[in-house]
Amino acid sequence: MVLDKILRAGEGRILRKLKAIAEQVNLIEDDFTGLSDGELRGMTDEFRQRVAEGKESLDDLLPEAFAAVREAARRTLGQRHFDVQIMGGAALHLGNIAEMKTGEGKTLVSTLPAYLNALAGKGVHIVTVNDYLAQRDAENMGRVHRFLGLTVGVIHPQMPPPVRRAQYACDITYGTNNEFGFDYLRDNMAWSADELVQRGHNFAVVDEVDSILIDEARTPLIISGPADHPTRWYTEFARIAPLLERDVDYEVEEGKRTVAITESGVEKVEDQLGIENLYESVNTPLVGYLNNSLKAKELYKRDKDYIVTDGEVLIVDEFTGRVLHGRRYSEGMHQAIEAKEKVEIKQENQTLATITLQNYFRLYDKLSGMTGTAMTEAAEFHQIYSLGVVPIPTNKPMIRNDQPDVVYKTEIAKFDAVVEDIAERHEKGQPVLVGTTSVEKSEYLSKQLTKRGVPHEVLNAKHHEREATIIAEAGRKGAVTVATNMAGRGTDIMLGGNPEFIAQAELRQRGLSPIETPEDYEAAWQEALEKARQSVKTEHEEVVEAGGLYVLGTERHESRRIDNQLRGRAGRQGDHGESRFYLSLGDDLMRLFNAAAVEGIMDRLNIPEDVPIESKIVTRAIRSAQTQVEGQNFEIRKNVLKYDEVMNKQRTVIYEERRKVLDGADLHEQVRHFVDDTVEGYVRGATADGYPEEWDLDTLWTALGQLYPVGVEAPDTDDRDGLTPDHLLEDVQADAQEAYDRRELDLGEGADDEPIMRELERRVVLAVLDRKWREHLYEMDYLQEGIGLRAMGQRDPLVEYQREGFDMFQTMMEGIKEESVRLLFNVEVQIAGQETEAAPAESVAVAPAAPAGAAALPAAVAPVALPDAEDDRAAARRTPPEVPAALAPPAAPPVFVKGLEPRRPTGGLRYTAPSVDGGAGPVTILDSGAESSVGGGAAQAAHGPAGGSAAGAGARPARNAPCPCGSGRKYKRCHGDPARRNAEVE
C-alpha cells in the first residue's frame, strides 16, 4: 500500500499537464478544420521538415500534430478524439502506460502518438495481442495515417522476408509481440545485411500492455532447431563397441565415469571404419561418438540408470528411482544409449536464439502502452520497464452497479444459480456476458444453458475474426455470451449492436477495402456508418431500459486485473450496466484462503447448499488471496528476468559484434589482436612452470604449427640461457604477424581492389561467432537446469549462475579467437579465373581439406556452421542447423567457404512463445505450420511465425493472407482471384 501511494504521488501533476495539452489542441482545432484535404495532408511534409531541420522537437509539435490527426480521424472514420483521448495520446508519447477503461477508444488513441513519432522517420511499432487485431487496426486506423500521407505496414505469420522488410520500412508497422520478437532473433541469425528485416527499435505502443508485458512475460521467445548429429554414426559405433574388450582395447574409471581407448582399441576402430588415422583432423568428430558408445556400454546400465519403455529410453533418477519423463542426457549421450538399445534415435532440439519479452521491449528507445487495467501492476511496470502508469479519466461518469460477490457451498449449486440468473436476464431482454476461468468451465456452462433452452455464443480463442463478430453482437437485446478471457478482444460491446462493425461488414460485402479501394471505401463510409447507427438506435434504447449489459463472473481469477477486465465491459461511455461474481468453496482461489473455515461456519449454521452467503469479510479475503498470488507470479517473472539478464549482457556483446560484421566493418586490426592473443595463450601455457630448460617447446611448436605456418625454430635446450617467456612470446607473435601478412598477399585483391582477406575475415568471424554462440546457449541451458541444486549447499543459485556463466562466456570468447585464427590461416582459397566445377564463375572458393572418399559438398551461398573443432570436447557438442532456406541471400557472395556453408536441417525450426488469449503455458510451433502444445498452452494462430516454409509444397494461402507473390494485396484479390486463375488456365 505504501509503495502504491508513492507510485501515485505525482498523478495529479501529470494529469494537469495532460489536461493542459488537450486544451492546447482544442485552441488550434479550428485552424485545421478549415483546411482542405490536400492542405491537411501537406501538414505532414511541413512537420517532417521542421523536425529534420532541428528547429523543433516532437514535443514542440505535439499540439499541432494531434490536432491534425483529430481532424483526419473525423474525416475518415467519422470519429473525433475526445479530450480524454488526447490526454491518453499525450501520456503515450511521453513514454507512459495510459490506463483507460474499456470502451474509451484506446485503438483510436494510438493514432496520435504513432503519427507524431513517425514524423522522425525512424519507424513506429504498434504491438497487438493477435494477428487479427494487427490486420484490422492496420486497415482501419491506417486510414487516418494514409490520409495524412504516412505509409502503414502489418506483419503476418509466414510473410516472406522481402515483403516483411518492406512492412518494417513503413512509417508505422502493426504486428504481434511474438512476430516482432522472432524477427529480432532471426535478424541476429542472418548471414548478410540483405537478410535483415527490422530497422531498429525507436518507439513502440503496446496494446493490452498488461497481458503482453506481465502475463506473457514468464515464457521467453525461443528459436530452436534439431542438433545436427548424423544418426548413422551412433548406429555405427554401437556396432563397434561390443567388439572392443575392456582393459585391453579401452580402460574404464567408474568413479570418475570416464573411458580411455588404448592403442589396440584405436587400431580395431580404424580397421572397422576403414580409415588410416582416427586422430587425423578430419576424423576428430568420430572420437566423440566412440567415447559415447563406450560410456553407454560400460557406465549406463539398463533398468538402473535408464529404462526402455515403448521404444523410448527414459532416465531414472538415481536418488528417488523415479522416471524423469521428458529429460534427456546431453552431449549426444542419450542418442548413444538409444543406438545401443536399438530403438529410434531421436534428435534433440538445440536453442539457436532466445530472449525474454522483458528484454526485447527494453530495446526500444521509447516504450509506451495502453490497457484498461494497469494500476494493480504499477510497481512491476516501474521496476522492470521504468514505465509509469497514468489513469486517464473516463469521457463520461461511470454508473455501473457492481454487486457484492455471492458464495455457494458447492460448484454444482453455484452453476445452477448462474444458469437461473442468466435465464431470467435473457427473458427480460438484458444482454449477459459470462466470464469463466477455463475452457472446460465454459463448455460445462454451455451444456447447462443448452439444457435450459437459453441461446448463447461461446468464445473459444481459436478464430479471432469470428470472435470479433460475437463480441460486436454481445450487446444486442437478450444476447448471452460465454467467454474465457475478455482481454485483447479489441471490439467494443455496444448496447444494441456495434454500428462501426456493422458498417465495415456491409462495405466488405460490397467488395470495398480501405487498403485496395481506399477512395471508394472513404466515399461510402459515412453513409454506411450513419445507416448502421440508425439500425441499432431503437434496440439500444430497449437494452438500456432492460438495465444495460450484465457481466456475470463464475469465478475469481488469480489476478485482479482479469476480473477488472471482465467487469469493465459493462458501463462503457456512461452506459447503464451491472456486474456480479458467483463463487463456490470449491474454486481454486477460495482454497487459497482457507475455504474449509468458511465451510465449517456454513455447516454449523446449517446453511443449505443452494443458499449463498454475502459477506464483505469473504470479499476482502479473496482480494488478499489475489494480491498474494500476484506477488508470487511477480517473483516468478523477476526470476526469469534475473537469469536472462546474465544472458542479455552476453547476447548484447555477440549481437553487436555480428552487426559490425554484417555492416561490412573492417576487421583487420581486430583479427590481428586475435592472432596475438591466441599465440600468447599458447606460449604462456607452455612456459608457466619450471625453468626454460624444462619447457616442452617441441609440443608448443607442434601446437603452433596446427595454428599457422611457423617460420621460426624452437630454441634448443642448450640455447635457452637468458630466455624469458616475454622474449619467446615477442618472437612468436612477430612471426605470426609476418605469416598473416604473407597470407594476405597470397590471396591478393578482389574486383573492388579490396584485399580478399577482408571478406574472408568477415565470413570466418561470422561463422565462428554463430557456432560458438549456439554451443554457448546449449551449455547455458544445461547450467541453468541444474543450478537450483546449489541452494542445498547454502549457495545462491543466481550468483553461481552469474559466476559460471561469465567463466563460460570468457572461454567462448577465447575459443572464437583461436578458431578464427586457425581457419583464416588454413582454409584453401581459389581465386576467380581458376574455378573448378564446384565453384561458380566470378567467385572465390574457400575450402578445408575434405576427408578421403568424401562426396564433394555443394557450393555455398552463406556461412552458418563450422567444421567440427579439432578437440574432443568440441567434437562432442552439437553443430547447430542452418536457418531456413527462405532466409538465404538472393545471390552468391564474392567469397564462399566449403565447410562453412549452410546445411539443410533434418527437421524444421521450432518457435516457442507465450500462449495467446490467456492460455496456460507456452506454445511451440514448427516452421512448417504444424504446432504442438507444450505445458498445456492454447493453440497459436493458424500459421507459424515467419521464416518457416508453407505448410507443404503447393499449399494455398488463406484467402485473407498476403499473396506470396509479394504484391502486398490479399491472396483472394491477387493470385487467388478465380477470374485470374481461370485466365491463367486458359
Automatic annotation (TrEMBL):
It holds the Pfam family SecA_SW. Residues 414-619 form the Helicase C-terminal domain. Residues 974-986 have a biased composition (Basic and acidic residues). Its main location: membrane. ATP binds at Q85, G103, E104, G105, K106, T107, D492. One of its GO terms (cellular component) is plasma membrane. Residues 1-614 form the SecA family profile domain. SMART domains: SecA_DEAD, SecA_PP_bind. It catalyses: ATP + H2O + cellular proteinSide 1 = ADP + phosphate + cellular proteinSide 2. It comes from the Bacteria. GO terms for biological process: intracellular protein transmembrane transport; protein import; protein targeting; protein transport by the Sec complex. Residues 928-944, 952-966 have a biased composition (Low complexity). Residues 87-245 form the Helicase ATP-binding domain. It is a peripheral membrane protein. One of its GO terms (molecular function) is ATP binding. It is found in: Cell membrane; Cytoplasm. Its cofactor is Zn(2+). Residues 871-986 are annotated as: Disordered. Belongs to the SecA family. Monomer and homodimer. Part of the essential Sec protein translocation apparatus which comprises SecA, SecYEG and auxiliary proteins SecDF. Other proteins may also be involved. Part of the Sec protein translocase complex. Interacts with the SecYEG preprotein conducting channel. Has a central role in coupling the hydrolysis of ATP to the transfer of proteins into and across the cell membrane, serving as an ATP-driven molecular motor driving the stepwise translocation of polypeptide chains across the membrane. This is Protein translocase subunit SecA. The gene is secA.
